[in-house]
């Protein structure tokens, strides 16, 4: 609860430098159109493919502050909207991140929204249609979202199951963008920019990453993310041996199974020689 209500890293100032992001399609234009037309946005894609970076990039690009919430099993509607707390012997109302975003005309980003409890999506519904309202039952307020407010949510379809999925009635309230991993040339440029490792040394890592991704659904639940490629290249750039960096950043995070690790290391050997 405290992490949601009081996290000092939750809000990104609009005046901050625009975070690095390389478009892979028309996502920038689509986000801008959704923002101007006051439409909520749903981002779908695998872990570590750039969804959160994209939202931060767009918030800075549009000059808006952003309130980011990492959703989890214990996240409730009250965590988002606010609650009464004791302060100095008095009971005072404290806005949650969603309420603050509405009041300020900011962007509210709910990362992995399917992880939150079901009552969270009920709170979002009035904000995701033409009403653009946020009812605060405990204070009796009915907040009218200003034109600058935008709601963005994301999730990883690969982790969906019967218990954790967005209902069609919720999904169809959003404009949606599907994210995937970038094409090799683009991903190489991204990893080079983020890690500082020369492009000619990054290219083999990207090739390896794609080889490991081909195993998703066989021995692996998830493939190597762009984030992990950046981590690996960063370790190498800092002086770590390539084989040690690959093990730490591209093998160990994927599985705990000893036999699967051996198989993945065999892929490394065959791909890089």
From TrEMBL:
Stored Pfam families: AAA_5, CbbQ_C
Keyword set, alphabetical order: ATP-binding, Nucleotide-binding
SUPFAM superfamilies: P-loop containing nucleoside triphosphate hydrolases (SSF52540)
InterPro entries membership: ATPase_dyneun-rel_AAA, CbbQ/NirQ/NorQ/GpvN, CbbQ_C, P-loop_NTPase
A GO term for molecular function: ATP hydrolysis activity
Domain ATPase dynein-related AAA: 40-174
Similarity comment: Belongs to the CbbQ/NirQ/NorQ/GpvN family.
Protein name in UniProt: CbbQ/NirQ/NorQ/GpvN family protein
